Amino acid sequence: MSRSVWPFDGSTVQPSNRQTTLDILPKNLMFLLISYDLENDRTRNALAHTLKDFGPRVQKSVFEADVSAKELEKLLTKLGKVKLGKEDSIRLYQLCAECVTKIRIWGRGKITKDEEYYIN
Fold first, then answer.
1. CA distance 52 to 59
2. pTM above 0.90, yes or no
Protein backbone atom coordinates (compact mmCIF):
# COMPACT_ATOMS: atom_id res chain seq x y z
CA MET A 1 0.00 0.00 0.00
CA SER A 2 1.14 3.51 -0.64
CA ARG A 3 -0.21 6.71 0.74
CA SER A 4 0.55 10.07 -0.70
CA VAL A 5 1.36 13.26 1.12
CA TRP A 6 -0.53 16.49 0.61
CA PRO A 7 2.23 19.08 0.21
CA PHE A 8 2.02 22.65 1.43
CA ASP A 9 3.34 25.05 -1.18
CA GLY A 10 3.75 28.02 1.18
CA SER A 11 1.47 30.29 -0.82
CA THR A 12 -1.85 29.20 0.62
CA VAL A 13 -3.35 27.51 3.65
CA GLN A 14 -5.32 25.11 1.45
CA PRO A 15 -4.02 21.68 0.37
CA SER A 16 -2.81 21.39 -3.20
CA ASN A 17 -5.23 20.23 -5.88
CA ARG A 18 -3.31 16.98 -6.34
CA GLN A 19 -5.43 13.87 -5.84
CA THR A 20 -4.23 11.22 -3.41
CA THR A 21 -3.94 7.53 -4.07
CA LEU A 22 -4.43 6.77 -0.40
CA ASP A 23 -5.33 3.14 0.02
CA ILE A 24 -8.15 2.10 2.32
CA LEU A 25 -6.96 0.39 5.48
CA PRO A 26 -7.16 -3.39 5.49
CA LYS A 27 -10.39 -4.46 7.19
CA ASN A 28 -8.56 -5.90 10.18
CA LEU A 29 -6.81 -2.61 11.05
CA MET A 30 -8.01 0.63 12.62
CA PHE A 31 -6.33 4.00 12.19
CA LEU A 32 -5.82 5.86 15.46
CA LEU A 33 -4.73 9.37 16.34
CA ILE A 34 -3.55 9.71 19.94
CA SER A 35 -2.73 13.06 21.49
CA TYR A 36 -1.84 14.03 25.02
CA ASP A 37 -1.19 17.04 27.22
CA LEU A 38 0.63 15.99 30.40
CA GLU A 39 2.37 18.27 32.89
CA ASN A 40 4.64 15.68 34.53
CA ASP A 41 7.79 15.03 32.48
CA ARG A 42 8.22 11.47 33.72
CA THR A 43 4.59 10.55 32.92
CA ARG A 44 4.81 12.25 29.51
CA ASN A 45 8.07 10.46 28.62
CA ALA A 46 6.72 7.10 29.77
CA LEU A 47 3.56 7.55 27.70
CA ALA A 48 5.54 8.57 24.61
CA HIS A 49 7.71 5.47 25.04
CA THR A 50 4.58 3.29 25.31
CA LEU A 51 2.94 4.86 22.26
CA LYS A 52 6.03 4.23 20.12
CA ASP A 53 5.18 0.52 20.39
CA PHE A 54 1.95 1.20 18.48
CA GLY A 55 2.95 3.78 15.87
CA PRO A 56 5.18 6.75 15.08
CA ARG A 57 5.18 10.16 16.68
CA VAL A 58 3.93 12.66 14.10
CA GLN A 59 4.15 15.76 16.32
CA LYS A 60 5.54 16.38 19.81
CA SER A 61 2.45 15.05 21.61
CA VAL A 62 0.69 13.24 18.76
CA PHE A 63 1.01 9.66 17.54
CA GLU A 64 -0.67 7.78 14.69
CA ALA A 65 -1.13 4.03 14.58
CA ASP A 66 -2.64 1.26 12.47
CA VAL A 67 -3.77 -1.34 15.00
CA SER A 68 -5.73 -4.56 15.15
CA ALA A 69 -8.61 -5.03 17.60
CA LYS A 70 -6.27 -6.95 19.92
CA GLU A 71 -3.65 -4.18 19.80
CA LEU A 72 -6.36 -1.57 20.46
CA GLU A 73 -7.46 -3.48 23.56
CA LYS A 74 -3.85 -3.59 24.77
CA LEU A 75 -3.41 0.14 24.09
CA LEU A 76 -6.64 1.06 25.91
CA THR A 77 -5.50 -0.96 28.94
CA LYS A 78 -2.16 0.86 28.99
CA LEU A 79 -3.79 4.29 28.56
CA GLY A 80 -6.18 3.51 31.41
CA LYS A 81 -3.22 2.98 33.75
CA VAL A 82 -1.65 6.41 33.14
CA LYS A 83 -1.84 8.57 36.27
CA LEU A 84 -3.30 11.87 35.12
CA GLY A 85 -2.94 15.15 36.93
CA LYS A 86 -5.83 17.56 37.38
CA GLU A 87 -5.10 19.39 34.11
CA ASP A 88 -3.83 16.39 32.09
CA SER A 89 -5.56 14.69 29.18
CA ILE A 90 -5.10 11.91 26.67
CA ARG A 91 -7.28 11.76 23.56
CA LEU A 92 -7.70 8.81 21.23
CA TYR A 93 -9.52 9.23 17.93
CA GLN A 94 -10.42 6.22 15.80
CA LEU A 95 -10.79 7.13 12.14
CA CYS A 96 -12.83 5.06 9.72
CA ALA A 97 -11.22 3.94 6.45
CA GLU A 98 -13.10 6.61 4.49
CA CYS A 99 -12.01 9.30 6.97
CA VAL A 100 -8.37 8.25 6.58
CA THR A 101 -8.64 8.99 2.85
CA LYS A 102 -9.53 12.59 3.76
CA ILE A 103 -6.48 13.32 5.92
CA ARG A 104 -4.62 16.44 4.77
CA ILE A 105 -1.11 17.42 5.80
CA TRP A 106 0.39 20.87 5.48
CA GLY A 107 4.16 21.06 5.74
CA ARG A 108 6.45 18.17 6.51
CA GLY A 109 5.09 14.71 7.17
CA LYS A 110 3.25 11.77 5.72
CA ILE A 111 0.27 9.67 6.68
CA THR A 112 1.27 6.75 8.84
CA LYS A 113 1.11 3.30 7.34
CA ASP A 114 2.40 0.12 8.90
CA GLU A 115 4.51 -1.68 6.35
CA GLU A 116 3.59 -5.26 5.65
CA TYR A 117 6.39 -7.70 6.35
CA TYR A 118 6.79 -11.39 6.71
CA ILE A 119 9.15 -13.34 8.92
CA ASN A 120 10.38 -16.63 7.49
1. 12
2. no
Closest by CA to 54, choosing from 70, 66, 45, 42, is 66
The tens digit of pLDDT for each residue in 66-76 reads: 999 999 999 99
Q: Which one of 3.30.70.240, 3.90.550.10, 3.40.50.300, 3.40.50.1820 gives the CATH number of domain 30-100?
A: 3.30.70.240
The answer to whether 71 touches 54, Cβ cutoff 8 Å, is yes
CA 37 – CA 76 distance, rounded (Å): 17
Residues 6+ apart with CB under 8 A from 35: 61, 62, 63, 90, 91, 93
